[in-house]
Amino acid sequence: MTRIEGLGPVGITLNISPDETYLDDAARLESLGYSAIWLRGGQIDSLDRISAVVRATDSIPVATGIIPVGVYDSDAVAQLFADLQTTAPDRFVVGLGGPQVPRPLRALNEYLDRLDRSDPPVPAERRILAALGPRKLELARDRTAGAVVLLVTPDYTAEARRILGPDATLVVSLMTVLGTDAARARATARAPLRFLSGVGGYATNFERMGFGADDISGLSDRLVDDLVAWGDADAIVARVHSHLAAGADHVVVSELGERPGEVARQLATRLPLRA
């Protein structure tokens, strides 16, 4: 598949607040120079959130990380894509993920079939798939523009690139904690890790990366340190560069902790935000 045009090397995750202040945040992130804004799937309580972010910004691509296919039907996603192609051409990247069902690959293929048959269709080059294991990476390679991987090491990024081949887009979503107090940073990182390690696929992928049962069940320091970038801004920048060097086309910086916006501000002056 063709790589997604205009995505650039470094994106940023937008935190969707209950009120509309997140729209001001989106405009601020665009002004900082990030090459894409990503919306967390767990915060997309309505597809209208995506349209609102596109309208609140000028030209930056807006991607979903991810739209859960078990929550939003393909007709609604296809209609949203068609509407945004009319008003803001080629700015919406349709990130898809899930579903949490016994045969997820079959369900994903059927969902992608429906997007192909939509009028107009959602083209493969404007959609990307959350993928961890080899079979989902192969599906992402064959039926979309590429894959988004979360909670991976740079070594696994290199393996994902090998599976995807040279022509697909590889996006790494990187959780970050700005702070040099190891105990506090790790405690902050463990909150989402504790939840995600119980979601199908993540614990299995941790095993693929060489983490043992004790690492996974106890969320060991080694696991936290390898999967979440914490420390000062320079330490986070170094981790971003390590994923880019391992084969990622685009790294999404996802901020954790009690200083919202500070990682985005500090990294903006230290990273190559545009290709």
Structural notes for this entry:
- This protein is α/β, with parallel strands linked by helices and 275 residues long.
- It contains twelve helices and ten strands.
- The chain has helices at residues 21-32, 48-56, 74-87, 104-117, 134-143, 154-164, 182-196, 202-208, 213-218, 221-227, 233-246, 262-268; strands at 10-14, 37-40, 62-65, 67-68, 92-97, 127-130, 146-150, 169-178, 229-231, 250-256.
- Strands 1-2-3-5-6-7-8-10 form an eight-stranded parallel beta barrel, surrounded by eight helices.
- The longest helix is centred in the last third of the chain and has 15 residues, at 182-196.
- The protein is globular and about 50 Å long.
- The two termini are 20 Å apart.
- The model has no long low-confidence stretch (mean pLDDT 96).
Instruction: Specify the number of helices.
Output: 12
Sequence stretches where pLDDT stays below 50 over 5 or more residues: none
Shape, please? globular
Tell me about the largest β-sheet: 8 strands, parallel, barrel
Order of helices and strands: EHEHEEHEHEHEHEHHHHEHEH
How far apart, in Å, are the first and last alpha carbons? 20 Å
Q: What share of the residues does DSSP label as strand, in percent?
A: 15-25%
Q: Over all CA atoms, what is the radius of gyration?
A: 18 Å
Specify the helix fraction band. 40-55%
Strand tally, please? 10
The class by helix and strand makeup works out as alpha/beta
The average pLDDT score comes to: 96
Strand order of the largest sheet: 1-2-3-5-6-7-8-10
